[in-house]
Design brief:
binds adenosine monophosphate; 5-stranded mixed beta sheet
Length: about 425
């Protein structure tokens, strides 16, 4: 074999058939839950205008330059979407979804791209599912979004999670908080990490997000946003907590939970799992009442969440929670000789038309090897055909799990298959 075989890029993975069953299971569960909550699916392109994301992310050049895959063709700047909130907000404005009346409830599932340093639970292409409720500033909308997210984990059986919530206030509350933070960090500026020093002027709240060790002692004693909320923000936050309690959703208040981006307002939340190691966030979200105006729409309040599919799978694996059943095959036709193969090519269609999965050997294996293949593919039944079976029009119908066999005409085999699979 040539030494120069191709590999996926670092931090990007192939999902092989043994794995894709889990994806189908999760995606079906998410879509079904979305139906119950009456969220409609939106699918946006993976490439967006860089200006949409760069602008949506505010003035944060560190995210734009370091964490995104972007390129230009001619005058146009393209970025592989790092998240889906700004794209959904763009679609909302572009298609005038506000004119449909009432708040819009949208959900999505799809790949996102970030040029981060890969590690367990952190990839460069990963998948998120998420939802946005656009067009209302009511605290019950925040709770509807959180309930939708929590219901998905509840259905999966992943209940060992902690929901953390906070309020990041509005621009008025935040201006006061920002000053307080700068005043607090200023005397220790030289002891902070490089990245936090860069954030000090542009967005001191993001310092609280830092994972750098040297920043932690200073973050620990930093002022809390909750002490700077104005009355409207405090009231909104109190309502959200009350409705969560009424909904039977446990939460932990974490006044250090911030979302660094300027368009976030009021409620912020994160769902964490202790089974994930250092990348412990399953998902998160919050209110972003300023985003839609920032990208050129009319001022429109909105709230949403985004969760990582891969992280969800890692947590389920750690806890031994199965994600659907192992892929299996209904029928394998084992054939000896060319006549048998031709017979099988006809009959395979009849079986598939019954809605059953059916395959056969395509590479001229021996009978023994074909049966082994049927076993490996977890086939429930096999039909064995050779010259003498063709002559007598009776075929060996084998129950692979029970290792029993009987000789039957094809019609009877179909009847047995239908009753076995409840068709
Ligand atoms: P964020 O959009 O950064 O709030 O991320 C929301 C969720 O997406 C996180 O809680 C993770 O579960 C997941 N996530 C974010 N970045 C990555 C990544 N690079 N690799 C895998 N999952 C990610």
């Amino acid at each position: 074999m040539s030494q120069n075989t191709f590999q996926t890029h670092h931090g990007m993975v192939d999902i092989l058939p043994e794995e894709s069953g889990k994806w189908h299971y999760l995606e079906a569960l998410i879509r079904e839950t979305a139906r119950e909550f009456h969220f409609g699916e939106i699918r946006t392109p993976v490439l967006e205008p860089t200006e949409l994301i760069a602008r949506g992310i505010g003035q944060l050049t560190d995210i734009v330059s370091k964490e995104m895959f972007s390129f230009s063709r001619g005058e146009t700047n393209y970025v592989l979407r790092p998240e889906c909130t700004a794209p959904v907000a763009r679609a909302y404005v572009q298609h005038h979804l506000d004119q449909k009346g009432g708040a819009q409830k949208l959900f999505y599932i799809g790949p996102m791209f970030r040029a981060e340093r890969p590690q367990k639970g952190r990839q460069r292409q990963f998948h998120q599912f998420g939802a946005e409720l656009i067009g209302t500033d009511a605290p019950i909308a925040d709770v509807e979004i959180i309930r939708f997210m929590m219901r998905i984990y509840e259905k999966i059986g992943l209940t060992k999670t902690t929901l953390m919530i906070n309020s990041v206030g509005d621009p008025e509350s935040r201006a006061d908080y920002r000053n307080a933070l700068q005043e607090y960090f200023r005397p220790n500026l030289n002891n902070l990490s490089d990245i936090s020093r860069q954030r000090f002027e542009a967005n001191p709240m993001r310092i609280l997000d830092s994972k750098e060790e040297e920043d932690q002692p200073f973050i620990e004693n930093a002022p809390l946003i909750t002490d700077y909320l104005n009355e409207a923000c405090s009231r909104h936050y109190a309502h959200v907590k009350q409705y969560l309690t009424d909904s039977g959703i446990p939460f932990v208040e974490n006044p250090r939970l911030v979302r660094g981006l300027d368009y976030y307002t009021q409620t912020a939340f994160e769902l964490i799992s202790s089974d994930l190691g250092s990348q412990d966030a399953l998902g998160g979200g919050g209110r972003y009442d300023l985003l839609i105006e920032e990208i050129g729409g009319r001022p429109t309040p909105a709230v949403g969440f985004a969760c990582g599919m891969e992280r969800l799978m890692i947590a389920c694996e750690a806890l031994g929670i199965p994600l659907g059943e192992a892929p299996s095959l209904d029928v394998y036709i084992v054939c000896r000789g060319e006549g048998a193969q031709r017979w099988a090519m006809d009959r395979i269609t009849d079986i598939r038309k019954q809605g059953l999965s059916c395959t056969m050997d395509f590479s001229g294996k021996s009978i023994k090897a074909q049966l082994k293949d049927a076993n490996r593919q977890n086939s429930r039944f096999a039909i064995i055909v050779g010259d003498s079976e063709l002559e007598q029009q009776k075929f060996t119908f084998r129950n692979m799990q029970e290792s029993t066999e009987e000789a039957l005409p094809f019609d009877e085999i179909v009847g047995k298959l239908n009753s076995a699979f409840d068709k």
